[in-house]
Amino acid sequence: MKTLSRIYTALIFLFLYSPIAVLVVFSFNNSRNRVKWNGFTLKWYADLFENELILESLKVTLTVAILAAVISTVIGTLAAIGIHGMNRKLRQTFLAVNNIPMVNPEIVTGISMMLMFVFVFRMTGLLRPGFFTLLLAHITFCIPYVVLQVMPKLRQMNRHLYEAAVDLGCPPVSAFFKVVLPEIFPGVLTGALMAFTMSLDDFVISYFNAGSTAQTLPVTVYSMTKKPMTPEINALSTLMFLAVLLLLILVNVAQIRDASKKGRKI
Amino acid sequence: MKKWAWLLVFALCFGMFGGCAGDDGTVTINVYNWGEYIDDEILDVNKLFEKETGIRVNYRTFENNETMYTLLSSGAAEYDVVFPSDYMVGRMIEEGMLAELNFDNIPNYQYIDEAYKNLAYDPTNKYSVPYTWGTVGIFYNKKYVAEEDLKAGWDLLWNEKYSGKIFMFDNPRDAFAIALKKCGYSMNTTNEAEIRQAYDELVKQKPLLQGYYMDQIFQKMINEEGYIAPYYSGDGALMIYREDGNSDIGYFVPDQGTNLFVDAMCIMKNSPHKAEAEQYINFMCRTDVAKANAEYIGYSTPHTEAKKQLDPAISGDPMFYPPESVIKKTETFITLDQTTNNLQRDLWTKLRL
Questions:
Q1: Residue in A closest to B79 by C-alpha
Q2: How many degrees, rounded to 5, is the angle at CA B55 between CA A207 and CA B85?
Q3: Are residues B92 and B206 in the same domain?
Q4: What are A133-181's pLDDT values in tens digits?
Q5: pTM above the 0.95 mark?
Q6: What's the domain count of chain B?
Q7: Which one of B37, B60, B64 would you mutate to disrupt binding with A, by most A Cβ within 10 Å of its Cβ?
Q8: E strands present in B109-151
Q9: How many angstroms away from the CA of B347 is the closest CA of chain A?
Q10: Contact (CB<8Å) A212/B30
Q11: Does residue B131 carry a pLDDT above 90?
């Protein structure tokens, strides 16, 4: 039975990671062919760093992802705390409202935001479709995920901790930073990471809201699909995969260290 | 409440800021082209233009006419120069989205072959300058496909002998065009009965296909996973002649006639920098630039001087520059009316389910 479960686990991992493995291997292939191996090369990596369109889109994607993650984490955490403090009925209503954008098809969200931005721009001349509308759109669709990550941590937290801090003379704001935030921090961090990755690989919403001045990486890659895709994309995906992997490892190591520190104190 | 008020102020400031950014004297034109459809390696066309004129080029890419149209018509993106295909040029003219060009600013237009001026989609050629063109034909693997079967023309794509080794376009307009040509009709027909007959042909063809693909056709043909695929002539440059291509692949245009497509350069009506946009189009029609683009993209160029300077192996290849007898039987796509468009789209969806 144990071997069986091991085989099962191995299969699942194989299924999950073999596409990435293939992608990485073929980023070093000395040919554009996606099936035959033709020797090792780094030329796709060199080409990648000369392809301005890709690099510029990468810059837009990363800037938007970082800003959207930070801003939506702040707004989402505040929202979660607010919702947590409501009475049961109101809380359920708000959580339901929070869930709607997540189950809504992306294309509906994307187009409705586009129509709104265009409307506002036509009426007032503000919010010209471009980088800023792209960022607003990303913040909007990231917030519900942050709320969803922070809520359980708030529920787990002992309500009386905050009250005790305030009772002992701590002003509410510093009580939040010193007592509440450390307790819910793992949730906030996962929320931020989730917002970052959601923003990073969003295609549909970015497509409709980027105007003519900002183009994100997924949109650029998609526009190349009329021709056979260049292995530069493999090289880029490999680098991005490594970056995300590194980020995850760092976060996990930090959390484990944090946990063991706390464990010792108690 | 206060928080929201602040947020709103913040957002509005940013919005205004975003609206004004870039007004520092240099003109920026926004260009919207197909992906991988400009030379960015040898001459690096956009960079060269910026260097020579001091006009900044904000270059963006799209992957098909329909999504480009959606973005432009909704007002969600503002571009100066766009590169739609023939039938989309027609539709954008009809809807008043394109500006009339001032050809005094585009003297290099004189180099464009007369054969590609005044085509059906822009009959008096006021709105567009041809950029590339090509035909749709059948790529086949000479090792596996018998020469005499080619005589069947488009019917080759229905030949049961090659069941499981045939590919088909994964978009309604190209797929219906082939089926209509097979039946002997115009690919621009608006006759419902003809379109339904073409649909029946496509249904009959479905079990013989390995699949409906677009760009994946390149790899699948090169690796001989399939032997027969209709595609755009210019892509033979990649499929057959590039170092990783497959020289066993051949190309022919069926006798029943085919589609001649043109991708053109146009200027949007609401462009605030029309003169600079015309300068850009003129630059794209300069002989050295047109030649560099033709070599990079691999599609046929309508530029007479650039064509003369191309490698004779390319300009003499009937795949890229077919003889008059083939051209005579071609049709360019024109804009279909709404009903026909919807009919094709609905039938296509039904076919692909």
A1: A212
A2: 45
A3: no
A4: 999 999 999 999 999 999 999 999 988 888 999 999 999 899 999 999 9
A5: no
A6: 2
A7: B60
A8: 129-141
A9: 23
A10: yes
A11: yes
